[in-house]
Description:
alpha/beta, Rossmann fold, 10 strands
Amino acid sequence: MGPFDWLPHAPLEAMQLDWLNGVELAVLRLDRIDPLISGNKWFKLTEHLAQARQAGANGIISLGGAYSNHLHALAAAGKRFGFPTVGLLRGHPHDTPTVLDLKACGMHLHWLGYGGYRARHEPGFWLPWRENYPDFYPVPEGGGGMAGALGCGGLIEQARRQLSTVDWADYDAWWLAAGTGTTLAGLVLAEAGAHPVYGAMAVPDDHGVAQNVSALVQGGYELLDASRGGFGKVDPLLLEFIESTEQACGVPLEPLYTGKALLALKQQIEAGRFVPGTRLIFLHTGGLQGRRGFTA
């Protein structure tokens, strides 16, 4: 596997929204790093790819659903940097815009059904795949674990280098959507107590976000429920909020993660959680390719 020295630049931009009520908000736009390899998923992959290279692997095998941002970034990286990728997918074969992209990028797909996908945490799950793809490095769902967290640590430095572009000397905290908690844990590790990190959980409690994060870091963060009734549940208020935000400041959001996270921030500000003058960095985790499943 070839070198992966690509370190994309994520611009930091001020967000002007009428509901901020004196709170200052800047967004670190991981949605703008690349047309295909978008969002936090690339940063979560970097350490995994480095480990795969050290292990002498010739390719990467990982898993996800039919709208997976993680598999999308992995397939695009494989195409760009010239290494083969294999995706193990939840459910039965069907085409989504994401799946069509995976195929176009050359990812080899295996559909596991729903029961087969549920077995992914069981001991022995990887054995047959290691036999089928002996020189492929397995990466966990979503690029998680400590390797995924460490890859996200560099985002702190990206934001700090650009504070002058929003006329800030410093900031008070981070705000981001939490899907698995890996990116949040990476920010907490890199902050080392300097600034707190708030994670708006875009998935219900039973998805194990709290356990994932506490297995990687101790303290320095807070998790809040932003799931709005379940993963993938979309309601009119959320869609209206996404549309009005885009019209107000030009920042596109999607309904699974970034839209829920920013709406949760609005509700916290309205509840008096943050005093005027507080400076927050909102981490835009990308994922806009997944919006195509909701265009209807």
